[in-house]
Design goal:
Blueprint (H helix, E strand, L loop, with lengths): L1 E5 L2 E3 L7 E2 L2 E2 L6 E3 L1 H17 L2 E8 L4 H10 L3 E6 L9 H12 L6 E5 L10 H9 L2 E12 L2 E8 L2 E8 L2 E5 L11 H7 L4 E4 L36 H14 L5
Parallel strand pairs: 1-6, 1-8, 6-7, 7-13, 8-12, 9-12
Antiparallel strand pairs: 2-5, 3-4, 9-10, 10-11
Helix pairs in contact: 2-5, 3-4
The protein binds flavin-adenine dinucleotide (FAD).
Length: 257
């Protein structure tokens, strides 16, 4: 099988994040594989173990995204591709990402492309479905189980807490949801092997893309952290007294009644 996982290097939301001038400060940020993309990579490896073939992990990012690609290779992917977007002067958006990825996939004849359900930074959840649409292949989102026999795929997907079962055919794009699998940790031999595995670096020219072809259709105007919450007030004394005070505060301070 010709298996692809599309992966984004995102900052680690478990670490402290600081915002400066409407942008996440990259100085303090730790970068990791987007957690939903780990499910995509793991499922790609499981498919290869069952059906044979090759797993390629593709990312659009700067040079530093090589670290996350090496992690994916250490997990067991066969090949990695880094599409360098640094030469672009303007910021990209979901349109840009999809336009670049679809140019890459045009000549690739994938049997299946696995994406994350959503990224933990941008969080738009658009890239997977947009890419499938561009390539004219079936798309199933938020999958929690995947079975492929021949050309046929039976998929369970998370539909707002319920399970929906879908049958479709390859080629196929799926977006992966928590519960699909348990992503493996790279083993020490895996990390050693990853250093020698192929990592292809492409520029937009290699994909016959002009900058204006991938110009963003949207613009982020501002980013900010939620306002700091004020301290709560703990009422004390007799319950009847507390109720009176609470009612009075709801009228005079909170002004909700
Ligand atoms: C040329 C370019 C310049 C950019 N400049 C900036 C910038 O200056 N500031 C900024 O904050 N962002 C920038 N971005 C990031 C861009 O806004 C987001 O990557 C894009 O909009 C995807 O949105 P999302 O993160 O919400 O992904 P979602 O749609 O939530 O992602 C869903 C899934 O799509 C796949 N995917 C998403 N992004 C990528 C990727 N890059 N490579 C491979 N697979 C991917 C993953 O499988 C992911 O789980 C740039 C992107 C490009 C292509």
């Amino acid at each position: 099988m010709n298996i692809f996982a599309v992966m984004k290097s995102t900052f680690d939301t478990e670490e402290k994040i600081s915002v400066q001038n409407g942008k996440i400060s990259e100085d303090s940020a730790e970068f990791i594989i987007n957690p939903y993309d780990e499910y995509a990579i793991e499922e790609a490896l499981l498919l290869r173990e069952k059906h044979g073939g090759e797993v390629t992990v593709v990312t659009i990012g700067g040079e530093e995204a090589e670290k996350e690609l090496r992690t994916a290779l250490a997990m067991g992917a066969d090949k990695a591709v880094l599409i360098n977007e640094e030469e672009l002067e303007e910021e990209g958006d979901e349109y840009s990402t999809t336009a670049i990825l679809s140019a890459y996939f045009k000549e690739k004849s994938p049997d299946i492309i696995l994406a994350g359900n959503v990224t933990v930074d941008g969080g738009s959840g658009q890239v997977g479905p947009r890419l499938g649409e561009e390539l004219g292949i079936a798309v199933v989102t938020t999958i929690t189980k995947l079975t492929i026999e021949g050309n046929r795929a039976v998929i369970e997907r998370d539909a707002e807490g319920d399970v929906e079962t879908i049958e479709t055919t390859l080629p196929l794009l799926v977006t992966c949801q928590q519960g699909l699998n348990e992503p493996r940790y790279p083993s020490l031999p895996g990390i050693m092997k990853a250093k020698k595995k192929p990592l292809e670096k492409l520029e937009l020219d290699d994909l016959d893309i002009d900058e204006e072809d991938v110009e963003a259709k949207t613009k982020v105007i501002d980013r900010f952290l939620p306002p700091v919450k004020g301290k709560g007030k703990i009422l004390e004394g007799e319950i009847s007294q507390q109720v009176k005070e609470l009612t009075s505060l709801l009228v005079t301070e909170a002004k909700v009644i």
